[in-house]
Amino acid sequence: MKTINELVNEAHCNAVDKGWWVEERSFGEIIALIHSEASEALEDFRNGKKPTEVWYEEKSAFGMTLTRLEMADDTWKPCGIPSELADIVIRVFDACGRYGIDLEQAIKEKMAYNATRPQRHGGKVI
């Protein structure tokens, strides 16, 4: 299995190869794009989709969207909350690749710190 940092590099290289870094993006735009993926997951949930539900869509030549429950080939786009959560992670990976962030180390460090925090720290309800 690939390390987190290997996945960061792969995601960022793919974004570069696909032209998403031809023009520089602001840090705010990058964060907004991550947030937009979270909003898409929330919209799927609001539309009655289950957190584990996956389906595939393909645009027809007539502009209609076709839907199926399994991927026929690589022209079918995976959809649903799992796909949106994956998009969040991919965008975070891309950002870390752009800025040279050692995400693997940051995760380990933050998880170790979180383990020291008290039960329901901060007392927030939600």
Strand content: 5-15%
| SSE series | HHEEEHH
Mean pLDDT: 93
Terminal Cα span: 35 Å
Largest sheet: 3 strands, antiparallel
Pick out the low-confidence regions. none
CA-atom Rg in angstroms: 18 Å
Please give the order of strands in the largest beta sheet. Answer: 2-1-3
Percent range of helical residues:
40-55%
| Helix count, DSSP H or I runs of 4 or more residues | 4
Q: Identify the overall geometry.
A: globular
The total count of strands amounts to 3
Q: What is the SS-derived class? A: mainly alpha
Structural domain tally: 1
Protein name: NTP pyrophosphohydrolase MazG putative catalytic core domain-containing protein
Could you characterize the architecture of this molecule?
- It comes from Paenibacillus odorifer.
- This is NTP pyrophosphohydrolase MazG putative catalytic core domain-containing protein.
- This protein is mainly alpha-helical and 126 residues long.
- It has one domain (4-120).
- The protein is 52% helix and 10% strand.
- It has four helices and three strands.
- The chain has a three-stranded antiparallel β-sheet.
- A hairpin with a 5-residue loop joins β1 and β2.
- α1 packs across α3 and α2 (27-46) runs antiparallel to α3.
- The longest helix is centred in the first third of the chain and has 20 residues, at 27-46.
- The two termini are 35 Å apart.
- The mean pLDDT is 93.
